[in-house]
Fold this sequence. Notes:
156 residues; alpha/beta; five-stranded mixed β-sheet; 35% helix
Amino acid sequence: MRYRCRGWNGARADAARDARQALDELAAREPGVPVVLVGHSMGGRAALLVGGHPAVRGVVALAPRCPPGERVDQLRDRTVALLHDQRDHVTSAEDTWAFGERAQEAGARVRGHAMPDGGHTMLHDARRWQRLAADLAVAVQDGGPLPATSGRVVSR
């Protein structure tokens, strides 16, 4: 899919609208296929916002933008994995962990992974980011337990 605009455009949230449209089209073409959304930064934010779509089983968000006060109720009964490097200078890991705690309180199954390296771009130690994101996506898709991580588990 392609986003209709570059960057986050405030309350319009076109990235989330575009992701929802793609999910609607996928669900119409392949009814009943469970979906796991994986998104980085703004894409992580969009994935978290549309994570309540009926086709979505869960979300893996990599260094997402999770501003204070962002909605979480849509994630009830979903599995959410949040990966973030504490030293990210573009998006806030602390905001991500706070989002995860609020989502958990709203009924989501949440695991946060404090990544030991990579910053926002995830270029340093990219293999670790890729492997963990893939393992988490498969586990969410299968409905099984989430894999352990070598990073610190922030919440369960």
